[in-house]
Amino acid sequence: MDASQVEPTGVLYQRTHNPPSTHRPPHRQDHLLSTLSERRRVSRHDAATADFDRPNAARAHDWLLGGTLNTPLDRAAATAALQAHPALRDLLRDNRAFLRQAVHHMLDTGIRQFLDLGCGLPTMGAIHQLVSSRDLDARIVYVDHDPATAARITLLTRDRPHTAVVQADLRRPRAVLEHPDTAQLLHPDTPTGLIAVDILDTLPDQDQPDRIIGTYLRALAPGSHLALTHLTTWPTTRTDPIDSDVAVTPTTMPSFDTQRWWIRHPRHPTRVRGWLDMAELPSPTPSLRTRYTGKTEAITPTEVEVLRTLLVKN
């Protein structure tokens, strides 16, 4: 055998034939994964499912609204909350109905940009769905602090133009308003629809909700609208801490880490309206209940009342 037929490694090599190829044709998925956009999509999907081993407030909320983007752990947590607060499901669904009617009213008045604070999972009549149902174009910024929720929203709205998801703490308005996505989509001299539904009554007084909502409102152009809900009474139950500003995890409730999403901080309607230097419009949903009663383990009071209001900035 000629020495030229032997590779330096000692492996026999036929000069008259090409060596067997070790390169396999690229699989279509491999090709897709080679693109930056697909890698980002996969990254978002991983983030959106990273907390499936524990309950998530936004997914529990979704189940109470009748949605399907939730897990058995989320449903168990929501069921436990319903045992303590039987009115919770009706309350949240009526608030979502108010949101839908308020957004339709804003669209009717010509508003085409929206900022949704503490949006949770935007399903079951979310802003981008309402806009699409009317074949309108609008710019939407969803704000949520939870990484998994923000990643899931990004996946849900990935085909929706002019829609951004800002993962940020709504208690820091400047961080939200000065975020690059917010600055790019929302024009400061154009009226905005500000959504604060199911959110301000989750904030204790120490978070200064009056300062928070005031900062957002001052940044908006005249003609902007605010859709707001706020509980004015909320029962204290055996599973709630007596001082709801103190983080206490009830033993009967699956852990939400530090999220106490079922705890609310009711305030008198006069106090809430005092935060808002805006003109109040007639409610777009006068038929919605404002008081909920029923069998409950509540200590006091036994009724749940809610303020729902639509306002315009002069």
From TrEMBL:
Gene3D superfamilies given in the database record: Vaccinia Virus protein VP39
Stretch list, region Disordered: 1-29
Pfam family, one: Methyltransf_19
InterPro entries attached to this UniProt entry: SAM-dependent_MTases_sf (IPR029063), SAM_dep_MeTrfase_SAV2177_type (IPR006764)
Superkingdom: Bacteria
Protein name: SAM-dependent methyltransferase
